[in-house]
Amino acid sequence: MGKVADLEYAKLMGPKTTHELRTGTLEYMACEVEAQEYLFIGHDLIIPYGTTFEPPFRFNPLHDMESIWWIPTWVLYYHVDQDGSQVSTGQSTWFNKLFPGRLNSRFPPFSTRMVFRVLPTSFHRAAHEFETMHQKLIVAYTNSEKEIPPAEEPAYSKPLENLHSLFDKCFASAVEHSRDVSFFRPTVKHAHQEDSSLETRDNKQPKV
After folding, report:
1. Residue 90 is inside which H or E element, if any?
2. In this predicted structure, what is the pLDDT of residue 81?
3. DSSP string computed for 20-78
4. Residues with Cβ < 8 Å from 133, sequence gap 6 or more?
5. Taking each helix axis from N to C terminus, what angle separates 124-145 and 61-78, rounded to the nearest 10 degrees?
6. pLDDT of amino acid 195
7. Which of 36, 59, 77, 100 is most buried, judging by how many CB atoms fall within 10 Å of its CB?
8. Which residues of 104-123 are buried (b: 16+ CB within 10 A; e: fewer)?
């Protein structure tokens, strides 16, 4: 049993809730939090000439769900299943797309389908479960933001309800099918980092 908690910036959610700081580990940060804007507003939205529409960005629970998803995704794309082995070229390419180590670079690969056939075969079943979570998360974002405008913030409550049970089911299945799978660090480091310890804060303030 594991728990993820980082409560120093916890606050009561409400209609005027904002997320003033871009905080946390970059690799696990929701793309919208990273960009500080909504990224799934309808592409067919037409803004009349002479008007502007810039809804204030607010953190919401879907961002927490996305952060949870990034953690096992990092585990699968970073590791190999044989001690002393190296990642394939395809796995390395996808790892660096998903985790480039710089701000505002992860949304393009996040908004498409993950290619998990580049991973070790023993990872495939778990990767399938996490890809299911990924696609449903994108649907949840899209549905929650389809009423912007005229709404100024996502209607996330209903999409969030469906995600909770799906994530529980997919995590349980991934664990069940990974009981005999081993994870090892690759013998050659990935291009930009040794591990996922990179953290970011606005104005590059250190975590204290």
Report:
1. helix 89-98
2. 96
3. -S--SBGGGS-HHHHHTS-S-S-TT--PPTT----PPP---HHHHHHHHHHHHHHHHHH
4. 69, 166, 167, 170
5. 160
6. 44
7. 77
8. ebbeebbeeebebebbbebb
- Tokens 């394939």 -> residue: 88
Instruction: Please enumerate in sequence order all residues whose Cβ is within 8 A of that of 170, keeping only pairs 6 or more positions apart, or say none.
Output: 129, 130, 132, 133
Q: What is the largest CA-CA distance in the chain?
A: 61
Closest CA to 29 of 101, 91, 116: 101
* DSSP classification of residue 191: S
Neighbours of 79 (CB within 10 A): 19
List the structure tokens of 55: 């809804």
Give the predicted TM-score (pTM) of the model: 0.83
Spatial separation of the C-alpha atoms in residues 137 and 164, rounded to whole Å:
10
- Residue length of the chain: 208
Residues in the chain with pLDDT values less than 70: 1-22, 43-45, 190-208
Rounded distance between C-alpha atoms, residue 119 and residue 131, angstroms:
13
Q: Calculate the alpha carbon distances from 54 to 36, 58, 94, 110, 131 in Å.
A: 12, 12, 33, 23, 31
